[in-house]
Amino acid sequence: MADHRDTSQQAQAANPPEERGRDEGEPARKQGMAGKTVTRADLSEAVYHQVGLSRTESAALVETVLSEICTCLANGETVKLSSFGSFVVRSKGRRVGRNPKTGVEVAIEPRQVMVFKPSNVLKARINGEAVEDED
Questions:
Q1: pLDDT confidence band for 121 (50 / 70 / 90)
Q2: Separation CA 36–CA 45 (nearest Å)
Q3: Tens-place pLDDT, residues 80-114
């Protein structure tokens, strides 16, 4: 039985999830929907290829944009990116929670949380619908 598992693992390693189809236990996915995580390096590389800045300048540009977004959010400001969505800082009040394992009540202190609200344009793109850009 261990041989079967090894063969299956080898097949999966040779055939990454984004290339596997329904016959291998996963539903077929649309191109680009394979669950890849986009990193700062990926964003910098995209800027390098599409804008034409040097790799160093592209990395600096991405860092500057992300830093500005972080600074605004840390100051409690809303960051709205047209046709993408909004990052909003919300205040959550003090409340009583319960430990699910023991049932003991625990005080949860007030805190700030950040939420992302996607725009209708982004929602439509995710769902494969055609929608004009909003401003």
A1: very high
A2: 15
A3: 999 999 999 999 999 999 999 999 999 999 999 99
The whole domain housing 86 covers 76-92+109-130
Q: What's the rounded Cα separation, in Å, for the pair 132 and 70?
A: 29
Q: Which helix (H) or strand (E) holds 56?
A: helix 55-74
**If DSSP codes are grouped into helix, strand and coil, which group holds residue 9?**
helix
Nearest CA to 97 out of 83, 111, 82 is that of: 111
C-alpha closest to that of 29 among 39, 44, 19: 19
Give the number of domains in the chain: 2
Report CA-CA distances (Å) from 59 to 30, 36, 73, 79, 86.
29, 20, 21, 21, 23
Q: 81 and 116 share a domain?
A: yes
CA–CA separation, 135 and 130 (whole Å): 16
What's the pLDDT at 35?
Answer: 80
Q: Where residue 83 sits, what CATH number does that domain have?
A: 4.10.520.10
